[in-house]
Design brief:
57% helix; 16% strand; 5-stranded antiparallel beta sheet; elongated; 2 domains; 5 strands; Alpha-Beta Plaits; single chain
Length: 177
Amino acid sequence: MPVQTREPRADKVREVAELKELLKAGTIILTDYQGLDIKSLSSLRKKMREAGGGFRVVKNTLFAIASADTPVSALAKGLFGPTAVAYSSDPVAAAKAIQEFTKGPKTLKVKSGFVEGTVFTPEQIDALASIPPKDQLYAMIVGGLQSPITNLVGTLQSMIGQLVMTLQAVADKKAAA
């Protein structure tokens, strides 16, 4: 007897296509949102938008279908229970937004994450949140590069100042003599 296969529903096909686009983000963090009310979820979505990303509840089977044949498929193997995806192009901003939300009265559990080709554990996501944001890291690098140059300029200016004072003292001495 032939096995009948149903044509997938249009809304499910559209959802899988949207998830495939979402998975192209540099950072994916899977969370367990069980116990959160709509107000809390809306608050978290707002924090994620401010961080340049988003937060979306997904069905595990649709996530598994969307992530098939992608590097993110490693995350789909351990999916169980209610799952929501936090996504962003900036890994630190996404991890910070999740960590800030978990400090509140409502708990959100991190299941796992995928950051630029690497699967992260919940502990690694927490460690990622402790890193300063990209803008601050860039400022630290520029400051580190600028510091020796500033010191060199200060040293050269003081040496030139000493030379001018010495020449002035010689000129005064010759004028007095």
